[in-house]
Amino acid sequence: MPGTEEIDPPRPVCVTVDGMKREGHLMARRRADDGWRGLCLLEVE
């Protein structure tokens, strides 16, 4: 819709089995592709 802006909510930071930090939404999206696993530990404000 014209005139509306999408505001991103705080993203949970996930730590993968490799010990790398990823944004939670990215983690969930790529887990199926790359086989990433992890837990969302924090939310970035």
Radius of gyration: 13 Å
| Helical fraction | 10-25%
Number of domains: 1
Topology, number of strands: 3
Low-pLDDT regions: 41-45
Inertia-based shape: rod-shaped
Largest sheet: 3 strands, antiparallel
* Sheet with the most strands: spatial strand order: 2-1-3
Could you give the distance between the termini?
26 Å
Class by SSE composition = alpha+beta
How many helices? The count is 1
Write down the secondary-structure element order: EEHE
The average pLDDT is 55
What proportion strand?
Answer: 35-45%
Describe this structure in words.
This protein has 45 residues and is α+β, with helices and mostly antiparallel strands. It has one domain (11-44). Helix content is 24%, strand content 36%. It is built from one helix and three strands; from the N terminus they run ββαβ. The chain has one helix at residues 24-34; strands at residues 11-16, 21-23, 38-44. The protein has a three-stranded antiparallel sheet with strand order 2-1-3. A hairpin with a 4-residue loop joins strand 1 and strand 2 (21-23). It is rod-shaped, with a radius of gyration of 13 Å. It starts with 10 loop residues before the first strand and ends with a strand. The model is unreliable at 41-45 (pLDDT under 50).
